[in-house]
Amino acid sequence: MIRSMAYLGLTTPAVAEWRGFGSDILGLHLIDDGADGAARFRMDDADCRLWVHPGAQNDIAYIGWALSGEAEALALKARIEAAGPVLTRASAEEAAARRVAGFYAFTDPMGFRHELAWGQFVSPGSFTPGRPMSGFKTGDQGMGHIVLLVPDLAAADRFYRDVLGFNQSDRITDGGRELLFYHCNGRHHSLAIGSPAPGMRGAHHLMLEVNSLDDVGIAVDRCAELDVPVSKSIGCHTNDRMVSTYIFSPSVLRIEYGFGGLAIDDLWEPKSYTRTSIWGHKELRPDLPPAMIVGN
Ligand SMILES: [Fe+2]
């Protein structure tokens, strides 16, 4: 059983821009580079939560999911392999590089690499934000949520629920779009999927939740000062009630920077909505690429 989103890896030609973006705009804690020159960030006392690797194109390199231990990972491995994908166990060196005790990796039918990890390394008292801020809401809810763009929405929905074991949170149909949301802990969603066009793969945003509404407003101010595009105005979502803004990262992937997301429990009943936002979230930069589409 997946417990939370533990970490995320990106690839981008824009690693250098990410260092300042991550620390000065988002308030992440920039630590020493990875062996391949990756920019690495802390967002709490976990040794590392976000890797930004050098690469020829913008892509999701891997999504790290936390499990309770290797026994739980092996149980999930059996279920995934029965559905087709083959899992490989990370070497000790690979696990150490991710700052976890171990993980199994596989590529899902949509083309995304997942890592089923356990024993994340934590250094209590180590988190130092890149700019003054109240910190990130993580803990049992993990590092945030990721919104993937999948080539086949129905096939992805079956895989993420029936094989990986995510629970449905909600669905939103807004115009011609359909978005599906999934939870694995008290965070309203750790994973969401949409389909921009049949056959396309990519990601729309990574959501990071902060501990104060002031941090969201300060991030918008910092974007204006440092000339970083804010792609959507501050708004409140219908489903998770997050008050957030969307910041255009150097790898096109938006960072939803939010506060006050809904916490849910096992009694949650999935809802359907026809709008993504109660107020706000107005598109401010229609001139920018609408999402990180791999291959574009
Ligand atoms: Fe979001």
TrEMBL record:
Residues 4-119, 142-260 form the VOC domain. PROSITE patterns: GLYOXALASE_I_1, VOC. InterPro entries: Glyas_Bleomycin-R_OHBP_Dase, Glyas_Fos-R_dOase_dom, Glyoxalase_1_CS, VOC_core. It comes from the Bacteria. Coiled coil: none annotated. SUPFAM superfamilies: Glyoxalase/Bleomycin resistance protein/Dihydroxybiphenyl dioxygenase. One of its GO terms (molecular function) is lactoylglutathione lyase activity. Keywords: Metal-binding. This is Biphenyl-2,3-diol 1,2-dioxygenase. It comes from Novosphingobium arvoryzae.
